[in-house]
């Protein structure tokens, strides 16, 4: 990973050359060395502050990044504040895939798909509402400030600040402590990022200077096309990996090839989506879900342990890398020098954008939660007002996705000399820093205050044991993996709640849609999918394989997803 990252690095000019290396080579090596040192420091400091309810790894990395930027700025005599030039390609191609894939690989599927309709409501419709609110607010306010921006820039601002930061959410919420909140906020974050990128590309691809009903319908149609095709591509890549490993079974000779094959297939799905101009975020996310359901059970015991640790470690390093850089880039002297002539306009822009983020978030969380609750008949399935406040607050954080889109829109090669563009870049950095630090610091105490531990203690006790803290994201609970587990002979589900007995009619589908769909999906999965693609309890006997006995339908151990 470091060799790949090194290709995107551009160092400062404050170090003396060595005889064995050219000036540029030596500076690059020194920059990488210092950055590795900072990453290590973030891990150590994060471990020491692990029990602190206010600080998390992302905030630690931001603070270390800002501190390092100050030191570099002083040493360089005010010429440079960071070790590398920001590249949206570095972010989208190398850093984002392991984070999103690991989230899909280790997310609790039962909670995610149980709330899928609400997640889509927040992630797709909510992002569109937030985009409209922020875009209209930008047009109304920034046009009066005469920043020299076009209508395309104002709409791009809407997409940039409609993108929540799912990386922050992963480290602030816990799916063991608050499973409903975690699944809603994180699930929304994945769909939100994909929707924001689609809207951002649409702003560039469509002539929005003369927007009309036809263009609006094309935008909507383009989104649904991208969502469907990206999901299908991710599912296909996951199923292909499961089928190949099940049939060839690399692990009979060595575990290394099957681990490498899983990693390459996951990355291939992401790159294929990029190549086909699809939503690579959705593709790699659903690829992770499918791989955890089928592929992970087809590999050896050693490979299962290795993949869980490897994917979590890569995701952890990518997250720390992103926040460390964002902290260092906050003091980019080039852009602040351009902005220094209009500090009042820059401050007003940052405050306005922060206000629009707050309003845009509230404009869809509370109304859409009300609509979602209308479809829920049981009280425990509804999103309470306290939970809505937490969802609103936790989704206010902005991060690397917003940074990458802003750099794409307002810079060329990471540089800009235009005052309006420089103001937007510095304002984006300000909003990202403020929202991550302030909102991130307040989220955990707010959860403790609004939902005391006693409120979700029963959920924690009924869930699987908390996984070791070496994992960034808690592993998945076993859930219900057979028809017998879902509906027992007494019509009581595994949670002890009275439930329907084997739904067979359209009436049952309408009255108990989630349980009914889940029931028929399990029947289809057991009868068709698992015999072909493998999975828990359906891996045939192969000498030296993970399953030494052919015992279909017998759960092995906990799965990662």
Summarize the model shown:
With 561 residues, the protein is mainly alpha-helical. 69% of the residues lie in helices and 0% in strands. The longest helix is centred in the middle third of the chain and has 36 residues, at 213-248.
Question: Would you write up a description of this structure?
Answer:
This protein is mostly helical. 69% of the residues lie in helices and 0% in strands. It contains 22 helices and no strands. The protein has helices at 2-7, 23-48, 57-75, 88-106, 109-114, 116-145, 151-162, 166-172, 179-205, 213-248, 255-275, 280-293, 301-329, 333-339, 343-374, 385-394, 400-410, 419-450, 453-462, 483-486, 506-511, 513-533. The two termini are 25 Å apart.
Question: Topology of this structure?
Answer:
Layout: H1 2-7, H2 23-48, H3 57-75, H4 88-106, H5 109-114, H6 116-145, H7 151-162, H8 166-172, H9 179-205, H10 213-248, H11 255-275, H12 280-293, H13 301-329, H14 333-339, H15 343-374, H16 385-394, H17 400-410, H18 419-450, H19 453-462, H20 483-486, H21 506-511, H22 513-533
The structural class is: mainly alpha
Helix content: 55-70%
The general outline is globular
Alpha-carbon distance between the two ends: 25 Å
Mean pLDDT: 75
Number of strands: 0
Q: Note the beta-strand portion.
A: under 5%
Rg (CA only): 24 Å
Order of helices and strands: HHHHHHHHHHHHHHHHHHHHHH
Main beta sheet strand tally, sense and closure = none
